[in-house]
């Protein structure tokens, strides 16, 4: 049977739209001018045709990068809000949606145990991290930002945008920050903020937060947790004991970044930055007294570096969290647990197959693996061929370069190219992936045989 998109929510949208217009019924009638409407069907047909040129991100056989469809309610609520098109820069531009943003963001903060916080939505994780590092730079002028070699590349680039010096801390063979190396760098007193990644984008690894927080007690730096991808997993009930311990300490960070558009079922354009101390709001606006920012009447535009922001993104997030509250044991949490189960299932089957090497047991829902080969170069070439062959068979994977030291079983090349192994990578971030692990393995097996020919 052919794939079909869910369309029933279009009816729910039309119904909600009729409800929305009731609120404005007292207004005198006015005909909206939207030129060209009669040509719209034809252009929309062209739009649909153009959009066919995409990988099927919404389908379980897309098991590559960090992409998943928004929940239908997020899509519908976002669309509904665009009839008003509120701007969450200030209450004047988006009264209801600003209130909804504050509520939804407080629920995210509550996930980490924060009863008070300062925070808001951003266009994405990059902007959210930029604000967190900007605040760190303002509070610790001239000091360095430290992040691991496996942290998102954005931190290095953001530091350069902000004019802050940056140090890269090596990662261990599980893709986690090497805290011995961090401790050594801290000794000089040059580091003002450590970025701890809770769920690296590459391998889903969790930096050792307990150790980083112990070092903070000694050396007094700020801790920014980049949980853009991993943050929601704090709701999952099936993490390893070590991963759970890190998540339980997340609330001790000075700031946290989470992307609702990664694992929060939102369309793109929805990141979130949270500060534990609401007082950092004073940094955003010099002439406002500290207390202004703790009052209930803050204007989101006064605590955000971005000015205009889509109220629709806040409405979509609010609606999603109303439908699927951020609770351990709830339906939303079960979705995350199922993704992790899928990743564990795939990793286990790969590790049991002598053709594959799985260097890191999945902590969240990312699996990385490489074909066993007699050299780093041959393993990398084979990964590339398997990746291409799998795509031809309709299975879409991703590629990642990992240090050769992660693969003691693959001999380093004597001459060149022994520094990194090109590996296969799957982010199994759709709960549907769980039922598709067998099919994914069948296609991978076929792709391996194609690549070996
Ligand atoms: C995705 C991601 C980012 C960047 O976020 P965008 O929403 O893509 O701007 C930063 N850090 C981590 C850990 C990520 O996974």
Please describe what this structure looks like.
By secondary structure, this protein is α/β, with parallel strands linked by helices. It folds into 2 domains: 229 residues, Aspartate Aminotransferase, domain 2 (3-Layer(aba) Sandwich); 122 residues, Aspartate Aminotransferase, domain 1. Helix content is 41%, strand content 13%. It has 15 helices and 11 strands. Strands 1-7-6-5-4-2-3 form a 7-stranded mixed beta sheet, sandwiched between helices. The protein has a 4-stranded antiparallel beta sheet with strand order 8-9-11-10. Helix 3 runs antiparallel to helix 12. The radius of gyration is 24 Å and the shape is globular. The structure holds pyridoxal-5'-phosphate (PLP).
Describe the structure in brief.
This protein is α/β, with parallel strands linked by helices and 453 residues long. It has 2 domains: 95-323, 3-Layer(aba) Sandwich (Aspartate Aminotransferase, domain 2), CATH 3.40.640.10; 331-452, Aspartate Aminotransferase, domain 1 (Alpha-Beta Complex).
